Amino acid sequence: MATRPAPCTVRSPVALQVGDVKTDLARPGVAVIDVALPPAQPLDLQEIVFKNSYTAFLTVRVQRRHPCDVGRASARKWVTCLWNHCLMPSPHTEAGSQDYFSLFRHQLLCDVDQVTAVRLILRQPSPVWLHFTLEELRLYPRGQQSLQTDFPSWLSHLAPQQQPENLHGGVPDPEKVSTEVQQLWVLTEMIRANQTAARIGRFDVSFQLALFIAHRGWPPVLGLLCGPACTEGAGCILGTGSICCHPELLPAGHAVRNAIKLLGKLLRVPGSGVLEVGNSHLP
Amino acid sequence: MMLEQDTGLSLAIAQIVQRLKGSSLHSQLERQARGSLHKPEIKLESLKEDIKDFLKTSGWEKRLQNAVYSELNVFPSPCHPAAPPEHMKEPLVYMRKAQGSWEKRILKSLNSMCTELSIPLARKRPIGEQKELFNKWNEMGTDEPDLSLFRPVYAPKDFLEVLMNLRNPNYENGDQPSFRNHLGLIQVPLKVKDIPELKDYFSELGLNTGQLGIDDSTQVPPELFENEHVRVGQTVLTEQDSAAAQQYVRQGCPTALRAELWALILNISNQPEDILYYEQLKSNVIQHDLLVDSLIYKDVKLTASNDDYYFVFEDYLYQVLLCFSRDTSVLEHFSYNSATPPKSYIRGVIPFHGFSMYVAPLCFLYHEPSKLYQIFREMYVRFFFRLHSISSHPSGIVSLCLLFETLLQTHLPQLFYHLREIGAQPLRISFKWMVRAFSGYLATDQLLLLWDRILGYNSLEILAVLAAAVFAFRAVNLMEVTSLAAAEAVLADLSTLKVMPLLQIFLFATVT
Q1: What's the CATH number where A100 sits?
Q2: Does B3 sit within 8 Å of A149, measured CB to CB?
C-alpha cells in the first residue's frame, strides 16, 4: 500500500474573468489550476486526492500522449475526463466546503493513461465566498493505491482468540500462579495486539502486581493493579484510582517478588502497549 | 462509483469491528459459542453454521445487531483517509478555532476562581471525610456547604454571545446590509432544512399518523390508537430490537414502557461490569474532592432543587453528576466532538449553569443509580454535548439556532420583523430553551414526549422546530409587546403547553 503521490507542479489558481481583474468589482466565479507533470514521464493516473476550499463544481481535463504522437507535440490532445462534478451540494452554504475528496480512474469519463498535464476548472457560482480553490492536491499513479482501497479481508471478520502458552518448570506455587497468569497473559496479548479501541475491564486477581520498566535487565513487563500500599494519587485509565508502582513499594516479601520476576521472564512482553496507556508519571 | 461504495462499506465494517472487539459483548459471545459446543445439535462438520444458528436462536445475534446499530448511530461515518483526526471532530477550521478559544476562556475563568478562593482544583480527602461521605452517600442533599463564593463558570447567555460573534473569514460579512447578512443573530451560512424537508424528515408526526400526546387524550377512545400502540410496544420489547424501538418511539412511548424502550434504544443492559464501573467511580468521588464538585452542588441547588417537579431527586443528581465528572470513558466521545477535554485534573466536562437539568427528567424513569448513570452518560455522548459546543453538525447548537431563526423568518415574517425592531431578537428568548433541551420549561410528561422524538429521530432538530412553534402559538400576544422584557414575560411560562399538537400544527397544518 505505497502512498507516494506522483511528482508534479501545481500552479496557483488563475481566475477567468472578463474585464480588468483589478478594477472590476464583480467576483470571478471560475478559476483554473494547471498541474504540470515532468515532461519525460507521462503518468497512468489512478487517483486524484484534494481538500476542497469552497469550490462548488469541478471539471477536470487531461492532456494525453498517444504512442503514435511521439515527437509531434502539437498532436497532444486535451480531453475532459470529469465534467461539473458537484463538491458543494448547496453552494451558498457550508456543506462540503472544506471536505477531502478522492476521484478514482473508474469514475472518470475517459481513459487516463499516459497523461502529461492536468487542468482543473473550478466553479463557484455563489458570490458570498471571498476565495475558492483546492488544496493539498495530489495525483496517484496506477499501481500505487491510496490508503483506503486495499483492505485485507480478515479485518472484516472477528479474529480467533489465541491460546495462552503453557508454563514451564521452576515456578514457585505453580498451581496458583499458573491459573492467574493465564488470565493476565490473555490480557496482555489483547493489549499488545492494540487493535481494540474498547476499554478493558477490571481484572480480578487475588494478588496484585506492579509495573516495571527496564530494571536490572528484565524486559519491561506490564502494569495492572496495585496494592493498597500505593499512595500516588493520579488515576489510571482503568479508573480504579489505583496505579502502578515500583516493586520496592510492595508490602510482601520474597515470594511475591520472585513470582513477579518469573512473570517477567515467562511473558516476555515488551509491555509497550500497556505503558502507553495513561501512565505519564513513570520515569 | 460502485467501488467507492464498497470501499466505504468495508471501511465502516472494519471500524465497527475494531470498536466492538475487546468489548464485553465480544467476550460474552465467545463464551456462549464455546459453551454451545456441548450441545448435541452442534455438529463438527458444520460447526460454523451450527454455532451461527445457535447464536441466532438464543438471542445473541440480536444483541450484536443492537450493538452494531448503536455504533452506527453514535459515531460519524468514516472520513476520507487523507483527513486528519481534527477533521472528523469538525471539518470547518474557523469553528474549531472558535471552540478552542471558548474552551480557553472557560478554563481561564475556572482557574481564576480557584486562585481567588484559594481552593485547589483537586485534593485527596482525609480518611475521616471519606468515611463521612460514604455514610452520607444517599443523602448528600442534606448537606449545606457554603457555596456563596462559587459562581457558575458560564451561563447560556454567555455562550450565545460567542455564537453571535462567530464569523467565517471567507464569507462576505459586509457592513452594508445585503442578502448575505442574516437578519437574525447567527451569521454563519450553514445548511438547514426548510419546512418541506422537515415535513419529509418528521413524516411520522403527520396528521394521519397516531401520536401519543394527541391521540391518547381522554376524549379519544383508546381502541382507535392507544391500545394497539401499547401492544406493538410490548412486542418490540420482547424482540429486544434496537432499530425497531427507535422507529416505534417516533410516535411516542407509553409511560409504562418508556424506561425499557429508552434503555433498548441506547443499548444499555446494566451488566455486572457496568455496575462495577459505577462503583469504581463512586469510590473515586469518595477519595478525591474536585473543584468541579462544588460547581455541581451549586448548580443543583440553584436549578433542580428550586424546581417543583425535580427537587425530590436532588440526591440522585449528586450521585450521577459527581461520578460523571470523573468518568474518563466520556473522553472517547471527544473524538467526534469538536471540543477537546482540558488537560488537567478536570478530565471531563465542565458544567455550566443548568447542566443538572439534563439529568433531572431521567430520574422519573430510572431509580437505580447505576442504571440512571449509564442512561444519562449515553444520552450525553449522543445528544446533549452538541448543545454546548461549537460545531457545524446539523444537530449542533449553531445549526439549531439558525434553523429556528430561518423558520421564524420564513413563516412568521411580520412577527420576526416586529420583534427585531423592538430589540427583542427571538433567539435571545429561545436560546435557553434549546440549550437545556426544554428541561425545566415544559411539564415533565410533555418533556418526555419530546425526548421520545429526539431518540426516535436521533436528532435535536425538533428542539428548533418546537421553539418556532411556540412563537407561532403566542404570535398574537407577541405582536403587541414593545420591549424585550415584555416579550420574555409573554414566553416565560411554557408549563401549560402541549408539545405534540404544537409541532403538528406548525409542520403540517400551517398555510404557507
Answers
A1: 2.60.120
A2: yes
Q: In terms of domains, do A60 and A157 share one?
A: yes
Q: What is the pLDDT of residues B195-223, one digit of tens each?
A: 999 999 999 999 888 888 888 888 888 88
Within-domain flag for A173: no
A158 and A214 in a single domain? The answer is no
* CB spacing of B3 vs A104 below 8 angstroms: yes
* pLDDT-derived band at A55, boundaries 50, 70, 90: very high
HSE at residue A273, side-chain half, CA atoms within 13 A, is: 13
* CA-wise closest residue to B384 among B357, B351, B358, B363: B358
Residue of B nearest to A132 (CA): B170
A232 touches chain B (CB under 8 A): no
Residue A259 and residue A230 in one domain: yes
In this prediction, residues A9-30 reach a mean pLDDT of 77
User: Where is pLDDT greater, at A249 or B181?
Assistant: B181
Of the candidates B23, B180, B284, the beta carbon closest to that of A235 is on: B284
List all residues 6 or more positions away from B98 whose beta carbon is below 8 Å from its beta carbon: B162, B166, B390
pTM for the full predicted model = 0.78
Q: How far, CA to CA in Å, does B400 sit from each of B193, B243, B336, B372, B388?
A: 10, 25, 18, 27, 11
Asked whether residue A207 is assigned to any structural domain, the reply reads yes
Q: Which domain holds residue A198?
A: 179-283
DSSP letter, residue A142: T
pLDDT at A168 over 70: no
Same domain, A32 and A106: yes
Which residues of chain B make contact with A98, given a CB cutoff of 8 A?
Answer: 87, 91-93
Does the CB of A46 have a partner CB in chain B at under 8 Å?
no
Domain match, A24 and A154 both: yes
Residue spans of beta strands (DSSP E) within B153-264: none
- Looking at the structure, do residues A27 and A119 belong to the same domain, yes or no? yes
Both A110 and A215 in one domain: the answer is no
Asked if A203 has any chain B CB less than 8 Å from its own CB, the reply is: no
Give me B382's grid cell: 449522543
Partners of B180 on chain A (C-beta within 8 Å) are 127-128
**pLDDT greater than 80 at residue A210:** no
State the total domains in chain A: 2
d(CA B233, CA B248): 7
Last residue of a domain, one of A115, A135, A162: A162
| CB contact residues (below 8 A), chain A span 252-281, against chain B | none
Q: Using DSSP, state whether A27 is helix, strand or coil.
A: coil
Q: Residue A168 falls within a domain, yes or no? A: no
A171 belongs to a structural domain = no
Q: In this complex, do A156 and B17 lie within 8 Å of one another by their Cβ atoms? A: yes
Give me the residue from A94, A98, A199 closest to B189, CB to CB: A94
Residues of A in contact with B92 (CB under 8 A): 94, 97-98
Q: Of A100, A161, A199, which has the smallest distance from its Cβ to B329's Cβ?
A: A199
- Point out the domain boundary residue: A130, A162, A194: A162
Residues A133, A56: one domain? yes
Q: Give the angle subtended at the CA of B51 by the CAs of B46 and B53, to the nearest 5°.
A: 95
Q: Does A9 touch chain B (CB under 8 A)?
A: no
Specify the 3-state DSSP secondary structure of A256: helix
Q: How far is B342 from chain A (nearest CA, A)?
A: 15
* pLDDT, mean of residues B359-385: 93
Across the interface, whether the CB atoms of A202 and B24 are under 8 A apart is answered no
Range from A42-56, B23-37, B461-475, B480-494 carrying the lowest mean pLDDT = B23-37
Question: Among residues B273, B243, B232, B355, which one has the least CA distance to residue B26?
Answer: B273
ipTM of the complex: 0.84
Query: In percent, how much of chain A has pLDDT > 90?
Result: 20
Nearest Cα residue in chain A from B12: A156
